[in-house]
Amino acid sequence: MEGDAELQDLYRETLLDYFRSAARKGTADPADVRAHGINPVCGDELEITARREGGRLAVVRYAGHGCVISQASAAMMAEALEGASVEKARELVAAFKAMMTKNAPLESLPAELETAAALEGVRRFPLRVKCATLGWNTLAQGLDAAEGKKNV
Amino acid sequence: MSRLDPAALKADFPIFKRLVRGKPLVYLDNAATSQKPRAVIDALVDFYENHNANVHRGVHTLSEEATAMVEAVRAKTAAFIGAPKPETVVFTRNATESINLVAYSWGRKFLKAGDEIVITEMEHHSNMVPWQLLAKEKGLTLKYVPVELDGTLDLDKVKKTLGPKTRLFAFTALSNALGTVNPVDQLVQAGRSVGAAVLVDACQWAPHRRLDVSSWGADFVAFSAHKMLGPTGIGVLWGREELLEAMDPFLGGGDMISRVTLEGATWNVLPYKFEAGTPNFADAVAFGPALDYLEKVGLDAIRAHEDALAAKAVALLEAEPVVRVLGPKDPAERSGVISFNLAGLHPHDVGTVFDLEGVAVRVGHHCCQPLMHRFQCGGTARASFYLYNDESDVEALGRALRRTIEFFKLGTKAGAR
C-alpha cells in the first residue's frame, strides 16, 4: 500500500525507539541552560535544560509532552549535543534546521547528526516540521539566554 | 422529515472530485470549515464577472445591482435566523470579529469597574480572549462556569456563577471541541433573570440546527458563513435593535457615518454604523446560495443525518479499548462533533496517519486550551460531520483508526507509550 511506505518513511523505527526511550527525558539538575518552548500550532510545551562543564554541554535533558516527532527529535538532540562545546552545539542546531527547513542534503550533515537524519522524512509533511525543530529552537534560545543575548 | 441523500449532495461539491494522497477525500473537519457547493462558487464568479462595483456609493447601474444583491442576502440571513428586521444583521469578517465588536462597542461603553462578565470553560478562544482583554482594560471581573467531566454544563452551577453584578453572560450553543449541545433556552433565561445581556456563540449551531434568535431571546448571536457552506470572510452579528442603536461604532471610516465635519461625525443607521469601509460584498453575495442550499436540504434533515453518522462513529471509536471519546454520552446532548484520544499517542500523530488514509480530521487544542487543560490533555483528534458525509466516511474513519492502532502497536506492551 502506498500509504504504508509513506508512514514507515515518516515514522522510522529509530524515531519510535527514541520516542519510547526515557534515557534523556527529565530535567538537568542543576542546570545553567533552561528554556521553555511552545509549538503554537498544537500548544505542546517542551522544557530543555542543560548543564555546562568546562565550556561543554555535559548534560542535556528534555521534559514535557508531545507527539512522536517532537519527543523523538528532542531525545536525539539531547544525545547528539551532550559532550559538544557550546559553539559546536550551535553549529549542530543550525545544521539540523538547515536540513529540516532548507532541504539541505543529508551528505552535508555533521557526523553527530547521523541519528537525527532519520527525521528527514518529516520534510514531506510541512505542517510537522515545527514539531521536529521545537526542541532544537528551544535549546538555542536557552543558550542565548544563558550567554546574556537577547532572544532573536 | 425527508431523508437526505448524501451521495447526491456530494456531487454538488466540486472538491470531492479530488484525491488526497491517492485516495478519495474523506472530509471530517467540518467544524473548522465546510466545503462549498457549486452554487456558492458560481455565485462568487458571477458577481465578479457581471456585477462587481462598490456598494452604497455610486448611482450607476452596477453599484445599484451590487447593493441590492448584498441587501437581499442580508434579508435572507435575517429570515434564516428568525430575525424580524434585516438591519439587525451586521456583516463582519467572522464570528470572532462579531464578538469583538460587542466587546468593543457595547462592553467599552456600558461596563464599568466592578461589573462581572460570565462565560464558560468550554468557550472557544474567540469567546474568551475578547472578554479577558475587556476585563483587563475596564477592571471587570471575569467568571467561568466550570465544565463537568462529561462535557456538559450544570445549570445549578451556571445559576451560582451568575449574580446581581453580572452584566453579560456569553456562551457557546454547541461546543466546537466536545460536541456538547448546550440548553440554550435555559441558559439565556438564567442570564436574563439576573438582568445580564446574553451573547450566544452560534458558530457550530447555525450550520447544523434551526436557529431562531427570536425564540432564544438572547441579545447578541454570532456565527460565521464559512462553516455553513458559505465563503470565508463573512461573519454575522445579530443584535437586539435597541442595544445596537445604543452602542458606539466599532471601526471608524467610510460607510459608517452620516455626516463628517472637521469637528466630528455622526453615525449612519443600522447596520451600516458597524460596517466601516468597503465591506466584503462579493462574499456576502455568495453567502446567499449557501443559505438557499441549507433551506432546500432542510435543517431538520441535516441534523437527523449527522446524528445518525455521529452515533455510528462514536460506537466504532468506543469499540477500541485504547480510544477515549470526550463529551456527553447521551446522544441528545451531543452533535456531529466527536473529540477523541488514543492512549499513548499524541493527536498530531493520529492526524498524520489519518491524512495518509485520505481522512481529514482536526487535531490539537481546537482553540480551547483551558478546556483541554480541564480534561488533562493537550489536545484531541476531532471528527466532525456535515450533510455531505455518508457511511463510507464513517468506514474510512474506522480504517484510519485501526491502521493507527496497528502501526503504533497501541494497547500492547511494545506500543507507543
A few lines on this structure:
Chain A has 152 residues and is α+β, with helices and mostly antiparallel strands. Chain A has 5 helices and 3 strands.
Structure description:
The complex is a heterodimer of chains A (152) and B (417). Chain A has 5 helices and 3 strands; from the N terminus they run H-H-E-E-E-H-H-H. Chain A is an alpha+beta fold and 152 residues long. Chain A has one domain: Sufe protein. Chain: A (Alpha-Beta Complex), CATH 3.90.1010.10. Chain A has a 3-stranded antiparallel beta sheet with strand order 1-2-3, with helices on one face. In chain A, strand 1 and strand 2 form a beta hairpin. In chain A, helix 2 crosses helix 3 and helix 4 runs antiparallel to helix 5. The termini of chain A are far apart. The model of chain A has no long low-confidence stretch (mean pLDDT 91). Chain B is of the alpha/beta class. Chain B folds into 2 domains: 135 residues, Aspartate Aminotransferase, domain 1, CATH 3.90.1150; 254 residues, Type I PLP-dependent aspartate aminotransferase-like (Major domain) (Aspartate Aminotransferase, domain 2, 3-Layer(aba) Sandwich). Chain B is 39% helix and 17% strand. In chain B, strands 4-10-9-8-7-5-6 form a 7-stranded mixed beta sheet, sandwiched between helices. In chain B, strand 11 and strand 12 form a beta hairpin. In chain B, helix 2 runs antiparallel to helix 10 and helix 11 runs parallel beside helix 14. Chain B starts with 5 loop residues before the first helix and ends in a 10-residue tail after the last helix. The mean pLDDT of chain B is 95. At the A-B interface, helix 1 and helix 2 of A face helix 12 of B.
Keyphrases for this structure?
heterodimer, A: 152 residues, alpha+beta, Sufe protein. Chain: A, 3-stranded antiparallel beta sheet, 5 helices, globular, B: 417 residues, alpha/beta, Aspartate Aminotransferase, domain 1, Aspartate Aminotransferase, domain 2, 7-stranded mixed beta sheet, 4-stranded antiparallel beta sheet, 14 helices, 17% strand
